[in-house]
Amino acid sequence: YTPRQALAVVSPRDEKRSRILEQSGWTIVTNPDAETGQASSIVCAMNALRTREEIDQIVILLGDMPHVPPAHLSSILAKAAAPTIQAVMSISEDTLSPPALFKHNLFPALASLSGDRGAKSVFLDNKTSAMTLPLSAYEALDIDSTADLSRAKETEHA
């Protein structure tokens, strides 16, 4: 899986991360409201893409999900190739999560998110044109704390 355009939404406090990503070819968008929840980061990304008419779909990934395999991303793109599919979300143990793909006609809904309402709400509002793709619990591991990191290390060495 190779993105055509890589855009990272980062907190203003993440200067080092921003530099590293920028040196790797990523476009950096700073989210001054990062503490308010997922929606503000998605809205920042959508605002940055507003004039990019050539972008017909986006894949939302989280930087704290290190075990998502490239093959899963390729599978998401393959599922989205069907013209009737407008959104694809990963599902692990009955929980919807990123990585997720949304096509252009859902961009306005993503751009209007608020609070901690993430992309899952857009997916659920469009169930008839959406599908899920299984992701194992290990692959869906989201590392938000040092305790999560310790569990991830234990899992890798088990």
How are the SSEs placed, and which strands pair?
Layout: E1 7-10, H1 15-23, E2 27-30, H2 38-49, E3 57-60, H3 70-80, E4 87-92, E5 95-103, H4 107-111, H5 119-125, E6 130-134, H6 146-156
- Class per helix and strand makeup: alpha/beta
Sheet with most strands: 4 strands, mixed
pLDDT < 50 stretches: none
Radius of gyration: 16 Å
Total DSSP E strands: 6
Average pLDDT: 89
Identify the strand order in the major beta sheet: 3-5-4-6
N- to C-terminal separation? 28 Å
Query: In percent, how much strand structure appears in the residues?
Result: 15-25%
Q: Total number of helical segments?
A: 6
- Encode the helix/strand succession as letters: EHEHEHEEHHEH
The coarse silhouette is: globular
Approximate helicity band: 25-40%
Notable characteristics:
20% strand; 4-stranded mixed β-sheet; 6 strands; alpha/beta; 158 residues; two-stranded parallel sheet
Written account of the structure:
The strands form 2 sheets. This protein has a 4-stranded mixed beta sheet, with helices on both faces. The chain has a two-stranded parallel ribbon with strand order 1-2. The two termini are 28 Å apart. The chain is globular, with a radius of gyration of 16 Å. With 158 residues, it is α/β, with parallel strands linked by helices. The protein is built from 6 helices and 6 strands; from the N terminus they run βαβαβαββααβα. β1, α1 (15-23) and β2 (27-30) form a beta-alpha-beta unit. Helices cover 35% and strands 20% of the residues. It has helices at residues 15-23, 38-49, 70-80, 107-111, 119-125, 146-156, and strands spanning 7-10, 27-30, 57-60, 87-92, 95-103, 130-134.
